[in-house]
Amino acid sequence: MGFSSKCFFVFTLFSLINVSICDPRATEAALICANRTAAQSDRQVYVESFLEAMDSITPLVGREKFGAVINGTGNNTVYAFGECMKDLSQTDCNLCFAQCKTQILRCLPFQRLVTGGRLYYDGCFLRYDYYRFFNESLSSVDRTICGNKSFAGNQSLFSDNVGKLVRDLEFGGLRNDGFLTAVVSSGNLSVYGLAQCWEFVNGSACRRCLSDAVLKIGSCAPKEEGRVLNTGCYVRYSTQRFFNNSATDTPPAGNGGGSNRLAVILATTLGISAFLLFVSAVSFFVRRKILKQKREKQQLGALIRTVNKSKLNISYETLEKAANYFNNSNKLGQGGSGSVYKGILPDGQVVAIKRLFFNTRQWVDHFFNEVNLISGIHHKNLVTLLGCSITGPESLLVYEYVPNHSLADYVFDTKNLQPLTWSQRYKIVLGTAEGLTYLHEESKLRIIHRDIKLSNVLLDEDFTAKIADFGLARLFPEDRSHISTAIAGTLGYMAPEYVVRGILTEKADVYSFGVLVVEVVCGKKNNYVFKNTNSLLQQLWNLYGMGKCNEAVDPLLEGNFNKEEASKLLQVGLVCVQASAELRPSMSSVVKMLSENHEIPQPTQPPFLNSGSSEFSPFNLHGKRFFGQPSSSTQSSGNKLTESWIEPR
Ligand SMILES: *[C@@H]1O[C@H](CO)[C@@H](O)[C@H](O)[C@H]1NC(C)=O
Ligand SMILES: *[C@@H]1O[C@H](CO)[C@@H](O)[C@H](O)[C@H]1NC(C)=O
Ligand SMILES: *[C@@H]1O[C@H](CO)[C@@H](O)[C@H](O)[C@H]1NC(C)=O
Ligand SMILES: *[C@@H]1O[C@H](CO)[C@@H](O)[C@H](O)[C@H]1NC(C)=O
Ligand SMILES: *[C@@H]1O[C@H](CO)[C@@H](O)[C@H](O)[C@H]1NC(C)=O
Ligand SMILES: *[C@@H]1O[C@H](CO)[C@@H](O)[C@H](O)[C@H]1NC(C)=O
Ligand SMILES: *[C@@H]1O[C@H](CO)[C@@H](O)[C@H](O)[C@H]1NC(C)=O
Ligand SMILES: *[C@@H]1O[C@H](CO)[C@@H](O)[C@H](O)[C@H]1NC(C)=O
Ligand SMILES: *[C@@H]1O[C@H](CO)[C@@H](O)[C@H](O)[C@H]1NC(C)=O
């Protein structure tokens, strides 16, 4: 084998390695949540700003591999910054970032909204905070994370190499794109390193950040792995080649510069034994790659079969165009799981396109199965799922377009709409109950909606209620964070056993339905349970005790309502929001109560009512204290709340 053919051979192997080791590096290095929480009263607004920021940062990262956005106003402003490692391909960057976005929600559990968080992945980084932090380089929460395995060979040699490597990184980092990878080899021992400053950290700040990181990472040797996660930069070394090498080598622009350099490295630092080791490593990677490809092919085959069978797949490009490239003017709404846009398909059909906040690629098979099952569900009171797309940077769901706004728009009068008449309200409540009965008891799947609220009940031309977003939770069984964001906005609708203990049965939907009934009849929002004792449910309970239930009916009706029906609806509402899940009726019995005059049981009291003297009444259930009494510090308003009221499970 002549020198140049040997080089060619090695070079070919090298490109194979590059491909095979290339992955989004979506492994978590650290999640750091800040120590500062949003005011309980601002919860909803804050979550909205946060989701807007995540929505608007995604296309930026999808284009340039970094992005910074500012969304919201006042105390609910969210600053967000995301960046991928510069050696990742754009596709890998998208994958890493999608994963990162879903996981940073762990800083926003529904119990308290933390107004800052940083998530370091090995392939990407995401931070959100309440102030403009984009050019910061160092802070007190910076972390050094060493591997837990010590290098087995000559440790002093290893430490020397790490030292040399990090010095290379420190000085190499001064390049103007703030990124460098390096390799130090001696004997059969190689150490690989990567350093990157975030985009808005300027030259001098980057230098400071890297010097600090290099100082700290040195302490990791002789561990095989070390990372420093600074505010403005990321440094990692490892005995594994973890980065995409081609980004650092001079591009092989026909003159073989890359292979020449490789040859020099080989000639000077690698002995024959190292070369053999290298070859065996290469064959290992190649085999792994082939296996992986085979597995992917199998998965893809199954996927294509499912798609063809279901005819549900619509290409991303088609949908993107249909929604006018997700222009803000096409936006219909924003929920915990994504934003919804109006779109017109090429055949003229008007649809609603939901742009999922969550990446579905990791569980593509499962996703398609579920979409298939859910698309088989048809009921006059459920929004029909028409299709989906998983090929683009984001996953999309396509629904039938329901023209007449959501129930929330009417009841909370956000859009100056004509108030609903009594008969419309009755019909909507009954339709919602029928839709839920179908989901719980009649469909093959037994779906618990989990997020029944006014904004998830849409109205068509003749004011038939259509429940939206059912089955969404089924699509993300592993993704608990989806659920907690959805929850963050809708705490007022949540059954106590679900909030506190995570117990989820159909009766949680029955509770939310009860709140919905009361809101529709009274024309008011049920305040978040902790906020004050004067919640809608409490007022109604008090009136019910005095036999004056009908005084709670929406004054906008000006008395134009059927008194008997009104008392019936309110009593059904109260029966559904009882503290004890066992006492709540099933949805099919609710339908019977509403449509066939079945007897309605006497309600017991809703879960949170109490004395009414203290501003925050403790949560009682069967005489037991349900929620800890918040300390007085939690009562101050603004962003200074620090207590966690409910311990995370
Ligand atoms: C949060 O802040 C308090 C006081 O400001 C401090 O004592 C505590 O250690 C901080 N906790 C974390 C995790 O930073
Ligand atoms: C969020 O911020 C970005 C830029 O900071 C902006 O382009 C986008 O329109 C904002 N989104 C909303 C809904 O305000
Ligand atoms: C960040 O930029 C702001 C101006 O936007 C400047 O006032 C501040 O000093 C900068 N901070 C750092 C750490 O570079
Ligand atoms: C090293 O850490 C990994 C995960 O971080 C863990 O699974 C493994 O058990 C640890 N090994 C030792 C020897 O502690
Ligand atoms: C190669 O590394 C192993 C440990 O990984 C060590 O035991 C061996 O002595 C090394 N061989 C040479 C030639 O340096
Ligand atoms: C370890 O490497 C150093 C060079 O850094 C060398 O002087 C020493 O002899 C080596 N020790 C062993 C046990 O191989
Ligand atoms: C970089 O940021 C620092 C503040 O951290 C500032 O003092 C310095 O002037 C900036 N340098 C340049 C070149 O913008
Ligand atoms: C490696 O990085 C280069 C330059 O950023 C990029 O063009 C290439 O697609 C990457 N290769 C892989 C397999 O990710
Ligand atoms: C923001 O929060 C502070 C307390 O942290 C409060 O004093 C201020 O009024 C709030 N501002 C707005 C606009 O809500």
TrEMBL record:
Signal peptide (from-to): 1-22
Pfam families: Pkinase (PF00069), Stress-antifung (PF01657)
Domain of life: Eukaryota
UniProt keyword terms in alphabetical order: ATP-binding, Glycoprotein, Kinase, Membrane, Nucleotide-binding, Receptor, Repeat, Serine/threonine-protein kinase, Signal, Transferase, Transmembrane, Transmembrane helix
Region (Disordered): 627-649
SUPFAM superfamilies associated with the record: Protein kinase-like (PK-like)
Segments traversing the membrane: 262-286
InterPro entries, A to Z: CR_Ser/Thr_kinase, GNK2, GNK2_sf, Kinase-like_dom_sf, Prot_kinase_dom, Protein_kinase_ATP_BS, Ser/Thr_kinase_AS
Record-given protein name: Cysteine-rich receptor-like protein kinase 3
Originating organism: Solanum pennellii (Tomato)
Gene: LOC107018896
